[in-house]
Design brief:
Elements (H helix, E strand, L loop, with lengths): L2 H10 L11 H20 L1 H9 L4 H6 L5 H4 L5 H6 L10 H21 L7 H29 L5 H29 L2 H8 L4 H10 L14 H16 L4 H10 L2 H7 L2 H7 L4 H56 L3 H28 L6 H11 L2 H18 L1 H10 L2 H13 L1 H4 L3 H4 L4
Length: 440
């Protein structure tokens, strides 16, 4: 019996609802997510914890959210990942070669951040963190393009779920590991240890090889063709019916969630939670709530369809912000902490499946990495800028309770806009070949 036949036989013994999640491509999406999620965590919540530990003022802590801005502008250099061939390594394939290089860059950037603690030079820490953001954004460009091209259209929903499993597991596990290592040794050691999470994406690319659906753009073509590689992703997207409305939804849909998420660690520290307690709740409660949420999201996506499942998840994610208002109101309470983290992760798990599947389906296979870079960057840019420039001031002025109520209210425009898109028929018209192409 061949290895393929053995694998198929093993999967056949599993419950029908589980089988789609253990196919090769969705499993690859899981491991790719591990490498995608950890980098973000290292300069978001984990860095906020390090800064808070060093006694940095909350206004400066929230201002550090701006080091994640490279994730919002990664579409500016995504065309390089699409078209530039790497010497020697290109023999492995365009996506695989860039996966290896981007992974190494991520590990080097984290080691550099570990060498610049906030207590020594806060400005140097900011520069080092920004370099991690650039490396992480570049790694994300490759990972997203690879994932979408690896998954056939009928597996985009399952693949989105597995990617979200990986992203959250990577972010939570790396964040929790960093807290534990920092408690026992130092923050520098924590960053060096966690850099190893970059290896998951690199290993996955080497094992799975170049995606069959990848359509290569050569940087050695005439200048006109290179120009098309640069502007082609934008031109193709904006030629679609209602493109500006779709882009507006992408920008608005996550503003409340983004504004709230980057302030959780300062809230926990203010309420008196220790690093070990935060790690326990993040992993012990948040991890399992996320797993359940992703699984439920897959079921909802299959039964409700794309439109209704996305709308439902947007409402759920908006309401989850209120749980942190409740936690801030109650104070140091293990039950309230478990409830807030559990609800937020459950809602994010559902939204991760439905919204990411929709965004993946928006891509044209000729420009997968560049278009998804544009979409994912636009998805959080407003929230990121607002968080970095005003979150600390808003918290000082309002207090944590009113702040989280405010983040709930500002999520409403995105929900209403998606409902309008449904009524206008723009959801169907917005799909690209990644979602509409028949399975081969």
């Amino acid at each position: 019996m061949t290895e393929t036949a053995k694998a198929a036989g093993w999967r056949a013994t599993l419950p029908a609802a589980v089988r789609p999640y253990v196919e090769p491509a969705p499993l690859a999406a899981l491991f790719l997510g591990l490498s995608s999620g950890f980098g973000y965590a290292m300069i978001a919540s984990t860095l906020a914890s390090w800064l808070s530990d060093e006694g940095i003022d909350i206004k400066q802590v929230t201002a550090f959210a701006l080091v994640i801005l490279p994730y919002n502008f990664k579409f500016l250099w995504a065309w390089i990942i699409e078209g530039v061939k790497l010497p020697l390594l290109h023999r492995l394939g365009q996506r695989v070669s860039w996966m290896l290089v981007a992974g190494v860059l991520m590990m080097v950037a984290l080691a550099n951040l570990a060498a610049h603690p906030p207590s020594a030079d806060l400005a140097a820490t900011a520069v080092a963190a920004l370099l991690v953001g650039i490396a992480g954004a570049t790694y994300d460009i490759v990972i997203d393009g690879y994932r979408i091209e690896l998954l056939p259209p009928e597996q985009l929903g399952v693949g989105a779920g597995m990617s979200q499993y990986g992203w959250r597991i990577g972010a939570s596990a790396a964040g929790a590991l960093a807290l534990v290592v920092a408690q026992s040794w130092s923050w520098q050691a924590a960053y060096l240890v966690c850099s190893g999470f970059a290896l998951f994406g690199m290993a996955t690319a080497l094992i799975m090889g170049e995606p069959k659906r990848h359509e290569e753009i050569s940087a050695r073509r005439p200048m006109a063709e290179i120009g098309r590689a640069v502007i082609g992703p934008f031109v193709e997207f904006f030629q679609r019916r209602g493109a500006l409305v779709i882009l507006l939804f992408i920008i608005l849909h996550k503003i409340g969630d983004t504004l709230a998420n980057l302030t959780f660690r300062p809230l926990f520290k203010t309420l008196g939670y220790t690093k070990n307690e935060i790690a326990l709740f993040d992993v012990g409660v948040g991890f399992w709530a996320l797993l359940i949420g992703v699984f439920v999201g897959g079921i909802l996506y299959a039964r409700m369809g794309l439109k209704r499942s996305v709308l439902f998840s947007l409402v759920l994610m908006m309401v989850s912000n209120l749980s942190f208002a409740g936690l801030a109101l109650v104070g140091h309470s293990n039950a309230a902490m478990a409830g807030a983290i559990g609800f937020e992760n459950f809602a994010s798990g559902i939204g991760g499946v439905t919204v990411v599947a929709y965004f993946s389906a928006l891509c044209d296979l000729r420009f997968t990495a560049a278009q998804y870079a544009l979409i994912s960057a636009a998805a959080s840019i407003v929230g990121r800028v607002v968080t970095g420039t005003t979150a600390g001031t808003l918290i000082d002025a309002m207090g944590f309770v009113e702040f989280y109520i405010f983040t709930t209210i500002i999520a409403l425009p995105g929900i209403l806009l998606f409902w309008v898109m449904m009524r206008m028929g723009l959801i169907e018209d917005s799909l690209g070949t990644a979602g509409a192409e028949p399975a081969s």
